[in-house]
Amino acid sequence: MELFWLAISTIAIGVFGCVAWFWGSNMVLDTIYPPKGPNAGDNIRKANQIRPWLFLGPAILFLTMYLVYPVIDSLWRSLHNSTGSRFVGVDNYTWLLGDGKFRESMRNNMLWLLVVPALSTLFGLIAAQLTDRIRWGNIGKSLIFMPMAISFVGAGVIWKFIYEFRAEGETQIGLLNWIVTRLGGDPQIWLTLIPWNNFFLMIVLVWIQTGFAMVILSAALRGIPEETIEAAILDGASPLQVFMKIKVPQIMGTIAVVWTTITIVVLKVFDIVFVMTNGQWGTQVLANLMYDWMFRGSPDYGRGSAIAIVLMILVTPIMVWNIRNARKEVR
Amino acid sequence: MDGMAGQKSTLVWVVNICAFLLVLLWTIPTLGLFVSSFRDRDQIANSGWWQSFSAAEQTGFVRTGTDDDAVQDGGLYVIEGNVTEGDQTLVAWGTGARDPARFQPGDTTEIEDGWQLTVDADGSYRLTSPEPFEMRRGERIFTTTEVPPKFTTGNYQRVLTAEGLGRAFMNTLTVTIPATVIPILIAAFAAYALAWMEFPGRAILTAAVVGLLVVPLQVSLIPLLRLHNEIGIGKGYLGIWLAHTGFGLPLAVYLLRNYMVGLPREVIESARVDGATEFQIFRRIILPLSFPALASFAIFQFLWVWNDLLVATVFLGNTREQLVMTGVLRELMGSKGGEWEILATSAFISIAVPLIVFFAMQKYLVRGLLAGSVKGG
C-alpha cells in the first residue's frame, strides 16, 4: 500500500513538475517579451527564438545525461584499469582480442546476426503473405504477433518446457524430446549440445521477432500498386513468380528496415542467454559477457566498458544508415 | 474454366492449411505454458502437457510387506496390501524390471517355490506361501497405473501468496506506470518543437534522436549507476524511473515527431494567426490530435518496461522485497528448476498483463510500429 502511494505521488509529482515547467517557463517568457505593446514584433521574434529550447529542454537534458554522457564515460573507462584509477591505453582492447570468451561471444553474435534477422524476416514474409489471403487472417496475425508482448524471460520459461530433457526411458515432458523419441531418436539435452545449442536459443528470438516482421511487411505488401500485380498475372505469371519477382522487389526497402531493426535487437540480445544458459556451453554473447565483467565477482569496469564500446561500434553502421534515411525524408 | 476454378480452390486450401500450421507452431509454446500452469504438481513432472487431457500413465514399483507383516490364514502364510494410492488405477503389473507390465490385474504368478502373488484391479495384492516367509525386504511389484487428468487453480493461490509473486507484481506495477507516463509528457513537447517550430539546429537534433534510438543501453549501465550513486539517488525506484525515462525518450520523440509532422499545416497556421500562443496550440490542438501516436508509444514503453530484466537488475536491488517479476522468474529458473508448477504459474502471471494490453490495444501497437519503421525507411 505504501508502495502504491509512492507510485501515485511520483506520477503526480512527475506530471505536475513537467506541466509546471512547460507552462511556467512559457509564461515567464511571455512576461519578459510580451507579444503586444510597442515592440510586439521584435518581442515575438525574440520569444520564438527561445521557446523551442524551453520545449526541448527536459528531453535534451535526459538524452544527454542518460545516453550521450554514458557513451563518453564508457569510452573513458574502457581506456582505464578495472576501477578507473589508472590510464592503460588500449590494453583492455588488446586483452579482449586474446580472450577466448570474447572470441566465442563475437563468433556467436555474428551467428545470431546471420540467422535471426534472416529467419525472422523470411517467416514474417511468409506469414504476411499467407494471412493476407485468408478469411481468418487477422486472428492468425494476432496469434503470430503475440510473442512480441512476452518478455524474453517469460519466453525463456516457455521454451524451457519445450527443450526439457529426461533420461532415456523416462516419460519426456519436453515437447521436442517427446517428438524425437516418438520418431525413434534418442533424447538430447538440447541446451548443452555444442554448437547446436546456439540455434536453439536463436529460435526463441525468431519466435518473438517474426510477428514484428510480419506486421510491417504485411502493410508494405498491401501498399503495392494493384496494377503491377494484375499485369503480371495477365502475362501468365504463377502465384510464386508474382510473389518473388513482382512483390518482393517492390518492398525491398521495407525488408531492409525490418532486417536492420531486428539486427539491433540481436546485437543487444541478453535476457534469453542470461536465463537459459547464462553463456555456458559455448553460448556466450557480448551483452552477457559484459554483464559478467561488470556485475559478477570482482567487477572490472575497464574490460566491461571495452565490451560495451565494441557493442556500440557494431551498431554504428546501422545508426549512420538510419540517420541518412531519416534526413533524406526530411528534405 | 472449370479446371481453373478447381485449381483456385485447391490453392485456397493449401494457403489455409499452411497458415493454420504456421499459427499453430507459433501458438503452441505459449499454450503449453498456459496448460501447465493449471496442472497438478505430480502430473506436471510425470507427463507432457499435451498428454494432460487424457489419463496419465505412470510406472513405478512398490515393495510388499516383509515377514513381520505376514499372517497365518489356514495353512498358508499371507502378506496383503495395496500397490496403488490416491485415485490411481492399475493397468498392468510385473515382478521383474525387465518386463514390468507382464501381468494383467487379477493374474496370479509364482515367484519362487510355492510363493504365489496375485494383484487385483483395485491394487490389492496377496502374497502367499506354504512355509513362513524369510525376507528382510519386501518383494518388488512393478506397476503401471493411470491417473485421471487433474487441473487445479491451487498453483495460482500458492504462487501469489506464499511465493512472494504478489509483492513482485506490485513492484513491477510501481516501476512501470511512472516510467510510462513521464517520458510521454517530456517527449510530446520536444516532438512538437522538432516538428513545428523553426530554429537553428533542428535538423541536427532530429538526426541525433534517430541516432540515439539504437544506442545499446548496456553502454549506459555502469556510468549511470555511478552517477546515481554520486548524486545520491542510489538504487531504488527513483533511479529506475529516471533511467527508463531516459532510455524510452528517443523512441518517444521520434514516433511523436513523425506523427505530428503529418498533422495538417492549415490548422496550426490559422491558430497562430488567431493569436494563440504556442503553448495553447500544443495543448488544444496538437495533443488531442496526436492521441493515436501517444497511445502507441505508451504501449511500447509499457511492454518494454514491464518485460525488462536488465535495467531492473541493475537499478533496483536484488533482495526479495525489491525484485520485479522478471527477476523472480529468473531466480525460479535458477533455483527451482524442478518445481515446474511454480515456474509455469509465475511465468504465466508475469506475461498475462502484457498479453491483455497487447490484445486490447493491438491497433495502436501496429500503427506505432508502422510509423516507426516504414517511414524511417
Automatic annotation (TrEMBL), chain A:
One of its GO terms (biological process) is transmembrane transport. InterPro entries: MetI-like (IPR000515), MetI-like_sf (IPR035906), UgpAE/MalFG_permease (IPR050809). Residues 106-322 form the ABC transmembrane type-1 domain. CDD domains: TM_PBP2. It comes from the Bacteria. SUPFAM superfamilies: MalF N-terminal region-like, MetI-like. The chain crosses the membrane at residues 6-24, 53-72, 110-131, 143-162, 199-221, 254-281, 301-323. The keyword Nucleotide-binding does not apply. It holds the Pfam family BPD_transp_1. It is found in: Cell membrane. It is a multi-pass membrane protein. Keywords: Cell membrane, Membrane, Transmembrane, Transmembrane helix, Transport. Its main location: membrane. GO terms for cellular component: plasma membrane. PANTHER family: BLL4140 PROTEIN, DIACETYLCHITOBIOSE UPTAKE SYSTEM PERMEASE PROTEIN DASB. Belongs to the binding-protein-dependent transport system permease family. This is Maltose ABC transporter membrane protein /trehalose ABC transporter membrane protein /sucrose ABC transporter membrane protein. It comes from Paracoccus homiensis.
UniProtKB/TrEMBL annotation, chain B:
Signal peptide: none annotated. The chain crosses the membrane at residues 12-35, 175-196, 203-225, 237-256, 285-306, 342-361. The keyword S-adenosyl-L-methionine does not apply. Keywords: Cell membrane, Membrane, Transmembrane, Transmembrane helix, Transport. SUPFAM superfamilies: MetI-like. It holds the Pfam family BPD_transp_1. It is found in: Cell membrane. It comes from the Bacteria. InterPro entries: MetI-like, MetI-like_sf. Residues 169-361 form the ABC transmembrane type-1 domain. It is a multi-pass membrane protein. Belongs to the binding-protein-dependent transport system permease family. This is Carbohydrate ABC transporter permease. The lineage of its organism: Bacteria, Pseudomonadati, Pseudomonadota, Alphaproteobacteria, Rhodobacterales.
